[in-house]
Specification:
The structure holds two protein chains of two kinds. Chain A is mainly alpha-helical. Chain B contains seven helices and nine strands, in the order ααααααβαββββββββ. The longest helix of chain B has 44 residues. Chain B starts with a helix and ends with a strand. The chains are: A mainly alpha, B alpha+beta. Chains A and B meet through helix 2, helix 3, helix 4, strand 1 and helix 5 of A and helix 1, helix 3, helix 4, strand 8 and strand 9 of B. Strand 1 of chain A pairs parallel with strand 9 of chain B, so a sheet runs across the interface.
């Protein structure tokens, strides 16, 4: 069944069909949330929020952009909002001179990064150790740089779609991506990965 | 000059790796990096970063679809027709206005009647006044008794609430690694009868029992078992923490707007494993609203954040 048909049937009241949309996009939405928020519980919660929001606002979706682009926009905004909440929480606890216990969570997450697919050819440039290091250092980028590098390199979106999601021009996206990759490279050089 | 040229080449390398470069540009890049070791290393590093980023993939959990559909269905059942709501509010308002009018009218007509009777026959008024007074006197003891009962009820309810509000902490020693989960369960049941730290009360709440079968992993210092609760059913979230050395333990619940809702514990604890139950109530013993709540768990100088969802469906 085509996406447009699914959407129109859901709008008419066949809410059970919404599970088809969830099946199609849950992977990318969850992956994006986890890569950005770096906390599994937050990623699950935000993933749920995103799809509930998509369902509630499906009537307003006119089809001007692709459904995927629209869902990505909701995902990006939801992730930003959750990150702000987390940062506010951290600042409240800051008087205790705490250190966030995130290292354990990230270690658990990177252990769960999928091994390469069976049909993937051996690639000298790809290894779990390097992927782990790249994932960790992506978390140290600024929010904007993290967002653009995840959308481009992790999610694989083209420049024009990223521009629509982030409401930036293609040249601005390229410029931010360039800076993000440069910063990532500097961090990995310090780690002696490169 | 060379740096500017290399900066330009770096941008072209980036575009080429993104597949946005034509054959001419690729040839230009190749000829440059064959002569410039810096740019050659740059190209190799970028290829490594991009290829590895592309291979970062996570599997969405299997339950996420069920969870999303359940959330959608629960919000649909929670919605009530607007008209019914307006009608309900209107009827309640009309009932209040009617009752108030009735009471006021009764009060006025009583007074008017007394004045009329006093004007006609003063003795009648005195008698009525006496009768009224006696009635009042008679009524008072009944009212007082009722009031007393109400006060008693309120007191017992309040004390029960305060009772429930107190943090419930089971203290048990970390089990040796050889012990199985079943053996770990046994000490928990024993210590339930003999709480150790001060301020600990035995639970009478019939809500969800803690789940000792959910062990604390060595890698994890804290976890929340049963993180979806319905406080109306007396369910509780079990916050399990592991303290390696004597340290201050603080567990605070925040709402979505990052406002403190309840401070469950804030004291020094000796090494061991602890479990704290939260029944979905704030510091005033009121059941909180539905939604997501953040649990900030501080052990010494480390802070771990977990989530709890409160649902009333």
């Amino acid at each position: 069944m085509e996406e447009a048909e699914i959407i129109s049937r859901i709008k008419k009241g066949e809410t059970a069909l919404f599970s088809e949309i969830i099946k199609q996009y849950k992977g990318v939405v969850f992956g994006h949330c986890l890569s950005f928020l770096r906390n599994r519980q937050d990623a699950e919660d935000v993933c749920q929020e995103v799809f509930v929001s998509v369902f509630n606002n499906l009537k307003k979706f006119r089809g001007d952009s692709k459904l995927g682009t629209w869902i990505y926009r909701i995902t990006v905004n939801s992730c930003k909002n959750r990150l702000k909440q987390v940062q506010r929480l951290r600042s409240r606890m800051a008087e205790e001179n705490y250190t966030a216990g995130e290292d354990e969570e990230i270690n658990t997450m990177v252990n769960n990064i999928k091994e390469k697919e069976e049909n993937e050819p051996d690639n000298l440039f790809v290894s779990k150790e390097i992927r782990t290091a790249v994932f960790k250092r992506i978390g140290e980028l600024t929010e904007e740089q993290r967002q653009v590098i995840i959308l481009r390199d992790v999610d694989g979106l083209p420049y024009d779609v990223i521009g629509k999601v982030l409401k930036l021009s293609v040249s601005a996206v390229k410029s931010k991506l360039f800076r993000a990759r440069e910063n990532l490279r500097e961090k990995l050089e310090k780690d002696k990965i490169l | 000059m060379k740096d500017k040229k290399c900066d330009k080449i770096k941008e072209m390398i980036m575009e080429s790796l993104d597949g946005a470069s034509n054959a001419q540009n690729k040839a230009f890049i190749d000829s440059h990096i064959s002569q410039c070791s810096g740019c050659a290393k740059y190209a190799k590093d970028m290829e490594l970063i991009i290829n590895n980023s592309k291979n970062i993939r996570f599997n969405a959990p299997d339950f996420i679809e069920t969870r999303i559909m359940a959330a959608i269905q629960s919000q649909n059942t929670a919605k009530k027709p607007v008209f019914a709501h307006v009608l309900r509010v209107g009827v309640s308002f009309a009932a209040v206005v009617f009752a108030a009018t009735f009471l006021i009218y009764n009060n006025i007509s009583d007074k008017q009647h007394k004045v009329e009777m006093a004007a006609v026959n003063p003795s009648v008024e005195t008698q009525k006044a006496v009768i009224v007074k006696n009635d009042i006197i008679k009524k008072e003891p009944v009212q007082t008794a009722k009031a007393e009962e109400a006060v008693k009820e309120a007191a017992t309810v309040k004390s029960a609430e305060t009772y429930e509000k107190k943090v419930l902490v089971y203290e048990y020693r970390p089990a040796p690694k050889q012990e199985t989960a079943a053996n770990i369960a046994a000490p928990v049941n024993k210590t339930a009868e003999q709480p150790v730290s001060s301020g600990v009360m035995a639970a009478k709440d019939p809500g969800v029992e803690p789940t000792p079968s959910t062990p604390l992993l060595d890698a994890e210092k804290a976890l929340v078992a049963n993180n979806l609760i319905n406080p109306n059913l007396g369910q509780a979230a079990a916050i399990k923490i592991k303290v390696d050395e004597t340290a201050r333990v603080k567990v605070v619940i925040y709402d979505k707007a990052v406002r403190e809702v309840a401070k469950l514990i804030d004291e020094e604890k000796t090494p061991g494993a602890y479990q704290i139950l939260w029944y979905g109530k704030n510091d005033n013993s009121e059941i909180v609203r539905e939604g997501i709540y953040f649990v900030y768990i501080q052990i010494g100088k480390r802070v771990i954040k977990k989530n709890i969802i409160v649902s009333k469906n």
